[in-house]
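Section 3.1: Structural characterization of target chains.
Under the original work plan, the team committed to producing a structural model for every single-chain target entering the pipeline before any wet-lab resources were allocated. The record below documents one such target. The sequence was received from the expression subgroup and is listed exactly as submitted; it comprises 557 residues.
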Amino acid sequence: MGEQRLVRGVDRYFKALGPRARVLVCQLPLTLMMAAVAIAAPAGWPGLLDSGLCLSALALCAALLAACVLVPWQRFGPSAPLIIPLLDLAAIGLTRDGSVEGLPDLGVLSVLPVVWISASRLSAPASLSLNFFGPLLAGLPWLFADRAEPPLARTAEALLVPLMMLAVSLAMRLARARLRHQQRRIEAKEAELKVLLAESRERERLLNTILDTVDVGIVAVDADGRRLLTNSWQALLEASAAPPACPEAAEEGELMLTGQDRTTPLPLERRPIRRALGGESFADYLVCFGEAPASRVVSTGARPLKNDDGDFRGAVVVFNEVTGLVDALAAKDDVVSTVSHEFRTPLTSIIGNLDLVLGDTEDLASPTVRRIEVAQRNAERLLALVSDLLMSATSAVRVHPRRTDLAGLVEASLGSAQAHAQSSSVSLSMDVPTPLWAHVDPLRIGQALDNLVSNAIKYSPDGGSVRISASTGDGWVRLHVEDTGMGMTAADAQRVFTRFFRSPAVREGSIPGAGLGLSITKAIVERHGGSISCSTLPGRGSTFTMELPAEGPPPAF
């Protein structure tokens, strides 16, 4: 590569010169060598300047130098300047014939015009012929001069310089051909790289256009937290959450982010990009940008970037605004809460009056009493449904965790469900160590257990068993509620914690319910900092697992 750069530099230098300057530069090395010989002659070779042939050679060199400067070479063809190196060979031949004892053979200076001829645009046969026969003809006077050497030796010496020049010319031609081949390869690679670069820029423009067109924010960061990409939508979102004193704030710690309540500042370690840099992979994580009431609710998700070895190299975080959806859900919850409150007051009055009537049934006929009992049961069922609606409409389930024995809660939940289980031919059992301590709200977790056990019995219409077991590890307590009932499909299991969801099999089986119990249970568990999951197969029952914090405060979120 260094050799190729040198050749390119020389080519660019020569192309920048005019025709006369190029000829002068090519002639200058031989002229300097001949001038050096002339200057050194009085001291080193006293008889050299007395030779008419040497003086003629020096005069010819001077004339050729003047011709390089004076002749308008641009008016002639590109091969016209080659007359100079041919006459140089003649001058060198004269110096060889007029040399004195002790002076080295100046025939080696033929390499300078030979290089000039070899570097020209002449064809290979013409160039090689000139570089061989030129030195040979220039050396003929020296060959036929009256000398003491044997004729064979003088002939060998006469042929040595032309053969050397032929070898030099041939080597230069080969080297030049090799350099041209490499240059063509480099030019081809450069053309290929230009095409790839153009395609890459086109893809980059397309990607930027797509990223700026979508109505979601996208941020890509490397392992050190440096931003690799931020689309325009995300830039506008961050600008809306920047402090008034610093509207161009780009650091995540400077942005005004709050939790779902739109008031509590979000800790730096719980912010989406920081979580992503910690290697977390998450989805539907809600945060609020800006200050209430103008804050924007955003659903965030992150996926890590890894290299071929599985090492963490960064992350991509997506921001999707859901302010309208959250406000609509809040409005719906307000409507449900208002209507439920309006239903609850008359229902309480109805149930109270029915209790009073059933407390004094001596004057009532048996059919009348049965009708009143049916009305009471249905009114109580409707009141339970209203209570569930009120619970599901509450924006935040309030919990008061404390050190609690979960074994006692499990035992109490199974005891309260015993009558329901017996009427449904379902057996209840538990495998929970005593005591089993956890940091939870006993009232709320008892409510969650009641919902899970009630569902397990309800969705075992043909009888079966319900079993509650427990496991611990990594600072968590896991309660498993397992039944042998009807189970559900994988698609239904993904939606089982959605409010008002009831699977087609449940609806076809006319099993009563509103589809609120599991969504309430999920809200309770998540308020404790835990999680709930479902494992099920159609016809083989279901297992619901609650993961709750062991002793100690629940994780911040």
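The longest strand covers residues 296-306.
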